[in-house]
Structure formats: structure tokens, C-alpha cells
Design a protein that fits this description.
The chain is an alpha+beta fold. Helices cover 31% and strands 27% of the residues. It contains 4 helices and 9 strands; from the N terminus they run βββββββααααββ. The strands form 2 sheets. Strands 1, 3, 4, 5, 6, 8 and 9 form a 7-stranded antiparallel beta sheet that branches.
Length: 242
């Protein structure tokens, strides 16, 4: 049997290039992104320029991880994270499960009344693309600041020994994405699961002295399909479908 070959980007990860927002934050930091968590995807940073940090909040507590050119940092699903830009911070972001984060696997730390249902949440995070760029920037900044206020409240409560506000946010985030799990599972089956399965089949083929999958080798490349898009943490060059 000829082994399967997965044609997507290695390990079915997604890649984007991020220039972190340099807008001053609500508490006076020089710049930073919008706090949020992912429900099923780990996220990695390869810092290419500048300096700053990533602030993270989990049930284990709050921490800050310094970032500078050459740093590689990552965290697992459920980690509320917020990038702080102390000067020219640029990052190649590597996301688990390919396009799943763009399919909704992220929830911003908005006030609880914006997390009541999917429609309310979608309205709260939407950045229209049919308005001038300056207006998009104003909306992105207001969204970031709203989420930052809630993040700071969650951090304060957690550090004071009160786990309930964070737990309430986690419950709301899980409820928001539950209707989309069938769609997400299919993306995972077509991506990360297919990639891992192909590797397993290649192991089996090689053990059986069958190297025919090597004759199917091919090369692919792509460029960004969107440049400078307003994302959660900054301006993004997006490479979808890899």
C-alpha cells in the first residue's frame, strides 16, 4: 500500500506575521494587543524584531515572559495572553491546527454581558472592512481597550485569591464555541489529524521496504493573501490555508 502524503504546511500549523500594536494601553504601557484565549489551539511566537513581553493568566496564576529578537515562546489552550510592545515588536506566529483560530477558536476577555451568546459576541468583536482604515483602527483600539479592562479585573481577582471571575469567563468562552465544534472537528480531521496519520502510514511503508511515497515529493510556496489586517494583537500579514 502506498503511504498517504499530506500536502499542507508542515504539521498542519498556521503561520502569520504580526506587528504588535503600538497604541498606548489603558494603564499606560507603550503598546500592546488584545487579551484573549484559545479553546483548542496552542500558540507559538518566534520573535523577529523589537522587545516586549507576553502577559499570561491561567488558573495557576499570572506571569510575564520577556520577548526579544530570537525568543521562541509558546503556551497551551486556555491561556489568556496579552502582548506588550515595548518597541518595534514583530513576531512570526505559529498556530496549532492550521486555520482553526481564524474559524473562531479565540475568545476575547470582554465584559460578561458581551459573552452571553454568539451573536452578541460577534457584534462586539466585528471590525468592518467597508469603512476607512482610520475607522477600522479606532474600532480595533476600542475593542482592545475594552478587553484589557476585563483582563486586568480577572488578573486582580486571581491574584487576590478569588478564582470565580476567571472561572466564569472560562465557562462563557466554552459555551460560546460549543455550537461550532462539529465544524472545527472536520477542520482538524482534514488538517492536523490527516498530517499525523500520513506520518504513521509512512512509518509503516518504510518498515515494509516501500518507499513509493518518496516518488510523490513536491514543493509548494505561497505569499500573504492579506497584508496589514487589523488582528487581535496587531497588524497581520495572513497566510491562510497552510
Amino acid at each position: 500500500m502506498v503511504s498517504a502524503t499530506y500536502d499542507g504546511f508542515p504539521a498542519a500549523v498556521g503561520v502569520s506575521r504580526l506587528s504588535v500594536y503600538d497604541w498606548p494601553t489603558v494603564e499606560g504601557l507603550p503598546g500592546g494587543g488584545t487579551p484573549h484565549l484559545h479553546l483548542t489551539c496552542s500558540e507559538g511566537y518566534v520573535v523577529t524584531a523589537g522587545r516586549g513581553s507576553v502577559q499570561t493568566l491561567t488558573t495557576s496564576g499570572y506571569r510575564e515572559t520577556p520577548l526579544e529578537a530570537g525568543t521562541v515562546a509558546w503556551f497551551t489552550p486556555g491561556t489568556i495572553h496579552r502582548l506588550v510592545n515595548e518597541g518595534g515588536l514583530e513576531i512570526v506566529v505559529v498556530m496549532q491546527n492550521s486555520g482553526l483560530p481564524e474559524a473562531g477558536d479565540a475568545v476575547l476577555t470582554l465584559p460578561q454581558d458581551r459573552l452571553t451568546d454568539a451573536e452578541t459576541y460577534a457584534d462586539a468583536i466585528r471590525i468592518p472592512t467597508d469603512v476607512p482604515e482610520a475607522e477600522q483602527a479606532d474600532i480595533a483600539r476600542a475593542r482592545r481597550d475594552l478587553a484589557t479592562h476585563r483582563f486586568l479585573e480577572l488578573r486582580e481577582a486571581t491574584e487576590a485569591g478569588d478564582p470565580e471571575p476567571l472561572a466564569a469567563f472560562q465557562r462563557a468562552a466554552a459555551a460560546l464555541v460549543r455550537p461550532r465544534l462539529d465544524e472545527w472537528e472536520q477542520r482538524w480531521r482534514d488538517g492536523a489529524h490527516a498530517a499525523a496519520t500520513a506520518t504513521g502510514e509512512q512509518f509503516g511503508a518504510l518498515r515494509g521496504a516501500d518507499g513509493r511515497h518518496l516518488t510523490e515529493a513536491r514543493v509548494a510556496s505561497t505569499g500573504p493573501t492579506a497584508r496589514g489586517r487589523f488582528g487581535m494583537c496587531g497588524r497581520l500579514n495572513v497566510y491562510p490555508g497552510i
